[in-house]
Design goal:
Blueprint lengths: L3 E3 L5 E5 L10 E5 L5 E3 L7 H10 L9 E3 L5 H4 L2 H7 L4 E5 L3 H5 L2 H11 L17 E4 L4 E5 L2 E7 L8 E5 L4 E5 L4 E3 L4 E3 L9 H13 L4 E4 L3 E4 L3 H20 L5 H16 L5 H24 L1
Parallel strand pairs: 4-5, 5-6, 6-7, 11-14
Antiparallel strand pairs: 1-2, 2-3, 3-4, 8-9, 9-10, 10-11, 12-13, 14-15
Bound molecules: zinc ion.
């Protein structure tokens, strides 16, 4: 059985990172150009699957040129250290100001543990990467993988300050990272991702504007799959504004984070039912509420 699915974008294959109890939620993209590239790395335990995927494409790990986690959240960068070991000639992209977290992941892992609560047990570990294996990017860089395939790095703060998206101008394809939300294919709906500690609404909306200006035709969602762009970027901007507004209304009446969190978990759980298991739904909704509350609190303190 093949692990890879076609994305409709030439050379780009999607593989399920295999998040425990959550199939087709977190993806990894294998790009089989002359310089092979892996975009997103899943979790540390995703590495054997990714290597199997490479084998299906007849790509030897020694030939992998770049490993590109779009940001240092563990569902995107958790496998980067293990992959760097398995692909000895590959270099790992990281947003320059976040590079130290891949060299020494201890603080990052602690922060993830705080953010994701009991889901943490599904996140695996993080293997450090030595600094000489890193390519530090800040947005605006272009790398040519072969004649008809290059990648542009687009700094994409909002969901997280150290996030970037990857654009393939030849095919108008955009690897969205978490900048365009989470696409739930069962209900054909986008859902928000506004986690602590550093979600910022203004930056998220500005990022969506910049991405729109690229006129992408295909969106490659890490969570999860490849879809025509249509109005999805505009829809996500509307959804984010609505989400923050709804939370702010309650925050105006109480600053008890726990009760606000519980209010939304109770209200939204039925929407998420059937797409996530209950632990995942609970933590996912809660995380998105707390991320917005921390953002609003910072706004009010300034
Ligand atoms: Zn993510």
């Amino acid at each position: 059985m093949t692990l890879l699915t076609n994305t409709g974008v030439p050379h780009v294959h999607l593989l399920d990172a295999g998040l425990i109890n959550m199939p087709e939620y977190t993806g990894v993209f294998l790009v089989d150009t002359e310089s092979p590239v892996i975009i997103e790395t899943g979790f540390s335990y995703s590495v054997p699957r990714i290597l199997e995927g490479l084998e299906e494409l007849n790509i030897s790990p020694e030939d992998v040129k770049y490993i590109i986690p779009t940001h240092i959240h563990m569902d995107h960068a958790g496998g980067a250290g293990g992959l760097a070991q398995a692909c000895p000639n590959a270099q790992v992209f990281v947003y320059d100001k976040a590079a130290r977290y891949l060299v020494d992941p201890a603080d990052l892992v602690k922060s993830v543990e705080r953010a994701v609560g009991s889901l943490f047990e599904r996140y695996g570990e993080m293997i450090p990467i030595t600094e000489d294996r890193l390519i530090k990017v800040s947005g605006g860089e272009t790398f040519k993988l072969q004649d008809d395939f290059s990648i542009e790095i687009i700094h994409a703060p909002g969901h997280a300050p150290h996030q970037f998206c990857v654009f393939v101008p030849e095919y108008h394809a955009l690897f969205t990272a978490d900048a365009c939300g989470i696409y739930l294919k069962e209900i054909e709906k986008i859902s928000v991702t506004t986690p602590p500690p550093a979600f910022r609404l203004g930056e998220a909306l500005e990022t969506l504007n910049q991405l729109k200006a690229l006129h992408p035709k295909m969106l490659l969602y890490t969570h999860y799959g490849a879809y025509k762009a249509e109005n999805r970027l505009d829809d996500y901007a509307d959804l984010l504004i609505q989400w923050v507004t709804n939370i702010e209304k309650i925050y105006d009446t109480t600053d008890d984070f726990e009760s606000i969190r519980n209010h939304f978990v109770k209200k939204l759980l039925p929407d998420y039912d059937g797409h996530y298991d209950s632990l995942m739904s609970n933590e996912e909704i809660g995380m998105n509420v707390i991320g917005v509350l921390l953002y609003l609190k910072r706004q009010r303190e300034n």
